[in-house]
Design brief:
Layout: H1 18-30, H2 39-42, H3 46-51, H4 65-72, H5 77-93, E1 101-108, E2 111-112, E3 121-123, E4 128-131, E5 134-138, E6 144-148, H6 157-174, E7 179-184, H7 191-199, H8 208-218, E8 220-224, H9 230-235, H10 237-250
Parallel strand pairs: 1-7, 7-8
Antiparallel strand pairs: 1-5, 2-4, 3-4, 5-6
Length: about 260
């Protein structure tokens, strides 16, 4: 990850290398110290010093909060794209053999902010000021593929397509013949995302038959949730009435029925 960031500092004046700082920050977060201010208290901790490769008694302390904060604000757009690709590369490296198929589960999660941090927004659904990072995991193994920190709002179709484009292209470069299935909730089922998962490029005017054929050709499929709307409710009205009668007859709390329509 550190190799993805260009270090603007004079080499002869560097005391804390980027790799050391990235490792220190990641370990601090994993240990329950999410704030960069915690670095001032942890920089002399023997366990953290050994974890990043410094002898606890004879070598200097780790970096302070101001240095860590400058690191967090250092990566630009290009560096962030490189870091994302590096995360996907690490995911690929974790496999002993090329899999025949991978299932990518994409979703966002509430990450509450305690103050007015950059990019944090008030989210009415969660009733909190938060970030909404996008997570992508491989469903069969549970391995993380990529994580994107983003503002606390629901992603739109363009943003979802951008995330998927970067991830799928890195996977395709490593595994050209692997089958890829993308799964997500209804707010990820945008036309831009559906078109991208099929053709790996925007295809907003594609018809269903072309989407299916493109999916087979590019070995990329999708399963997205579908939010309720008038057309959908009208299409399942008969099934909904039937299942309501079944639930009444069986006195069941829950009843499930599957149906399809075009």
């Amino acid at each position: 990850m550190a190799r993805c960031i260009e270090d603007p500092r004079a080499p002869e004046r560097i005391v804390h290398g980027l790799a050391e700082m990235v490792r220190f920050r990641a370990l601090a977060i994993a240990a329950g110290y999410p704030d960069a201010n915690d670095c001032d208290r942890l920089r002399q901790d023997p366990a953290f010093k050994m974890a990043v490769g410094r002898l606890p008694e004879t070598e200097g302390d780790l970096c302070s909060q101001p240095t860590m904060t400058r690191l967090e604000n250092l990566p630009g757009t290009v560096a962030l794209k490189r870091m994302m690709a590096a995360m996907v590369e690490l995911f690929c490296d974790s496999f002993a053999a090329v899999p025949r198929r991978i299932i990518l589960d994409i979703d966002d999660t509430e990450d509450r902010a305690y103050g007015q941090q950059q990019l944090s927004l008030f989210n009415a659904h969660h009733d909190s000021r938060c970030f909404m990072p996008i997570h992508i995991y491989e469903a069969v193994t549970g391995k993380p593929v990529a994580v994107f920190l983003r503002p606390g709002k629901t992603p739109d179709g363009t943003e979802v397509a951008l995330v998927l484009r970067h991830v799928v292209r890195v996977l395709r470069a490593r595994w050209p013949r692997v089958d890829i299935l993308v799964r997500g909730d209804s707010h990820y089922g945008r036309p831009e995302a559906m078109a991208l998962t099929v053709a790996l490029r925007p295809w907003p005017s594609a018809r269903v038959t072309r989407l299916r054929r493109g999916c087979e050709r590019h070995r990329v499929g999708y399963i997205f949730g579908l939010g309720g709307n008038k057309v959908l409710l009208r299409s399942v009205a008969a099934e909904a009435e039937q299942i309501a009668l079944e639930r009444l007859d069986a006195a069941a709390d829950k009843t499930r029925r599957y149906a399809q329509f075009r």
